[in-house]
Fold this sequence. Notes:
This protein is mostly helical and about 325 residues long. The protein contains twelve helices and three strands.
Amino acid sequence: MTAHQNGSTSxxxxxxxxxxxxxxxxxxxxxxxxxxxxxxxxxxxxxxxxITIRLEASLHEPMYYLxxxxxxxxxxxxxxxxxxxxxxxxxxxxxxxxxxxxxxMFTMNSIFAMESCxxxxxxxxxxxxxxxxxxxxxxxxxQFVVKAAIFILARSIFLTVPIPxxxxxxxxxxxxxxxxxxxxxxxxxxLSCGDIIINRLYQFACGWTLLGFxxxxxxxxxxxxxxxxxxxxxxxxxxxxxSTCGSHFILILFFSTVLLVFVFTLVVExxxxxxxxxxxxxxxxxxxxxLNPIVYGVRTQEIKQGxxxxxxxxx
Length: 315
């Protein structure tokens, strides 16, 4: 429950209240079923993918270790957001403590940064595999994956941990109702009585520095890959190279497109319903995690064969 102290100048709260789709209550009814199905799909598909990679010796390669890391991040992202959203939809449990709110804020931001960096490392992996195939085994090793994972974790945590700290240091004295289904940084910060310009600037600088830097390197990697592929004289080699990179590029494109759409709706928020950015924010936490393992499973022959072998063993 919200604890507050009434006075002439301020009111102090011990928790926030997530004002989720109160302007469009019908959204909760039709959204709860597909959202829960997408959540189960994301958790189930990523679990199957992780088990397949773990049990199939032929998949014990750096590329699939990176894919395992992506699956773990997807599952963590879903678990951070979707259960609370469904609890609001089904049981009207809108209250969230300050600690839980800022923890969710940190987790969401750090996982997004980790996923972006993972996509960048995976693009580099494909670049080396196609543009420098003879050196691939000496460059992309198990040690490389370990170092890459440490870099992804350290960079993301170091750069995103100030976001909840800056928001947590603000004084919340007038309002504790968050106009969102989750504890997004700016949705929380704008409730404070103080100046939030530093929060806005850091969020903007951190987001565009991390995502922008990663996207530039990803684009550069695929530009070099495309140039190398077009030089191949064998049609079979071209098709195989494009197929290998196709699933990866589709997921990166979708991840980036959803972010751009979300940013666009925030820019034109006066012309669209305020619930639209909230809806897109929720979907961005569940649709990519649900699609990632499916796209890889369908388009990657080795994973498809590994799943089929495991199913035959199960029967």
